[in-house]
Amino acid sequence: MFFTSKDSLSRQRKEELAVFQKAANLRFRSLELLNLSLTHRSCGNEDPHHVQNNERLEFLGDAVLGVVAASCLYELLPDRSEGELARVKSYVVSEEVLSEQAKALGIDACILLGKGEEQSGGREKRAILADAMEAVIGACYLDAGFETASRFVLSLVEPEVRKVLQNRHRKDYKTILQEYVQKYRRGYPLYTVVKRTGPDHDRTFWISCAVGVDVYGPVSGKNKKEAEQNAAKSAYDAIIAAGGLEAARLSQVEGG
């Protein structure tokens, strides 16, 4: 799937893509291909001209991202176990990290959305932004080859790996808490939706986290995944604040 024609893109769109390329330090031969990587499937619901979307490029980009990130970690962390490498990789290629990188590069401003998705806050949705980031990686691979795509991915991955090594990254509290409860309490954290507030297009979830007989929260999030992560952090913070053996064990799990 290669595109060469630029005639179908408006002058304004070409300028928008030029701004993005400068921010990402990329230079596409095919602006049509780059444009496709930034075309969400919701466009096809309302505009018959958008018969293609970025989902196939996302699939390809996910694979490129995975192999480059794994290779990077293998080289940078020669003393780490497979489990530790997998944990770091899951963070650096996570939806949260990719969506923040997408915002930093201006993808939230130049992604093409259908009117319905636009009105429901699609430009702020992590899943949409992270998927677009992967689609751009896939497009870069098709446009310029693996070496160029690899350099682009490394520019995204290496700073995040350094954050992990310096303990400056956003922690996956759900994973930390689950490993602690499985190892020392022989069970699993239990997450319960206490309530939902707000209209359908701007819903807030309130979730509590139970660790044995202890219940933490409820705390809120803009989706269930975010609320569960916040509830896990609430439990983590409470256990650490209480001190003693349980806090020591939880800290041990976090440190790997």
SS elements, strand count? 3
CATH superfamily of the largest domain: Ribonuclease III domain
Tell me about the biggest sheet?
3 strands, antiparallel
Class computed from helices, strands and strand pairing = mainly alpha
User: Averaged pLDDT, please?
Assistant: 88
List keywords for this structure.
single chain; mainly alpha; Ribonuclease iii, N-terminal Endonuclease Domain, Chain A; Double Stranded RNA Binding Domain; three-stranded antiparallel beta sheet; 9% strand
Walkthrough of the structure:
The protein is mainly alpha-helical and 256 residues long. It folds into two domains: 11-165, Ribonuclease iii, N-terminal Endonuclease Domain, Chain A (Orthogonal Bundle); 173-254, Double Stranded RNA Binding Domain (2-Layer Sandwich), CATH 3.30.160. Helix content is 61%, strand content 9%. It contains twelve helices and three strands; from the N terminus they run ααααααααααβββαα. The chain has helices spanning 11-24, 31-37, 55-76, 82-92, 95-105, 107-110, 115-119, 126-144, 146-165, 173-185, 224-242, 244-254; strands spanning 190-197, 204-211, 214-221. It has a three-stranded antiparallel sheet with strand order 1-2-3, covered by helices on one side. A hairpin with a 6-residue loop joins strand 1 and strand 2 (204-211). The N and C termini lie far apart (43 Å).
